[in-house]
Amino acid sequence: MSEENLVVVEEKQGYAIMRINRPAKRNAMSKAARIAMLEAMEQLKGRFGVIVLTGTDVSFCAGLDLKEASAEREAGIEPDPATSWQAVNVAIRAHPAVFIAAVNGLALGGGVTLINVCDLAIASERASMGMPEMGFATYPGLAGPSTQYSLTRKRHAWMMFTTDRIDGATAERWGLVNKVVPHEELMAEAEAVAAKIGQFDPVALTVSKGAMDQIPVQIDWDGAFTFGVGKINEINKMTAAGSEGLARFSQGERLVGQG
Fold first, then answer.
1. Which residue of 50, 148, 149, 153 is 20 to 30 Å from 2, comparing CA positions?
2. What's the CA gap between 18 and 107, in Å, rounded?
3. In a domain, 36, yes or no
4. Residue 100, beta-bridge partner list
């Protein structure tokens, strides 16, 4: 697949659709995919009041491309904060458009983070969401804090500690998504909601979106994600289990929670 097709954008009347397009990798976010997503968001800024975010084929987003991250770490390549997964998710919260997640399938780790940072979420009945990080002997650096913003403490703890996935119906009942629909109706439903919201004044939409992170107390997404990444570093200083698990994953072993 050519690099320029890692994120596909469709422009509609009053809204846009942004589709992650790495189906062979379950739409895991490589550095190139993250850059493509950041560039797509920048191109859509100020032109559309609503963006529907979805995935290609059977996955929404399987999180970060861990094999690429492992290879870069072994090669001594320093992460670029400007193109990090944290930067992508913070950019969604800072973007003037209202984001609607159309969760078409598997959402793991960073995929759950994407659901959380979107303003609204509609899930297919085939969707499956989970945080597998504990199976890698680490804390879900971004999915953890963002899920704790979205769910009650006990529900967040269940996802984090058991690594069990929840289906669309459970996600709706728990409040992780707004609505679950039959798979074949997902995009029609998401686009209908996007078209309705897209009729409203863009300034009113942007200011109202920002207000959601200020009431009743200001939500610091960047600070929360930095805290989460710090917990990963804290674990790594105390045990080699995480790096060992990532090495086994890179060699093809399936870890608990990964599926």
1. 50
2. 16
3. yes
4. 52, 120
Tens digits of residue pLDDT in 105-116: 999 999 999 999
- Residue 242 pLDDT exceeds 80: no
The single residue listed with the structure tokens 């609503």 is 50
Coarse DSSP helix, strand, coil percentages of the chain, rounded to the nearest 5 percent: 50, 15, 30
Q: Are 182 and 125 a contacting pair, CB within 8 Å?
A: yes
pLDDT tens digits along 64-104? 998 998 899 889 998 899 999 999 999 999 999 999 999 99
The total of structural domains in the chain comes to: 1
Backbone angles phi, psi at 82, to 5 degrees: -70, -20
Where in the chain does DSSP place strands (E)? Answer: 7-11, 16-20, 50-55, 59-61, 98-103, 106-108, 120-124, 128-130, 166-167, 179-181
The CATH number of the domain holding residue 103 is 3.90.226.10
Asked if residue 255 is part of any domain, the answer here is no
Q: Residues 224-239: pLDDT tens digits?
A: 999 998 988 888 888 8
Give 30's contacts (C-beta < 8 A, 6+ positions apart).
Answer: 6, 22, 65, 68
Sequence letter at residue 23? P
Assess if residue 202 is contained within a domain: no
Cβ count near 159 (within 10 Å): 24
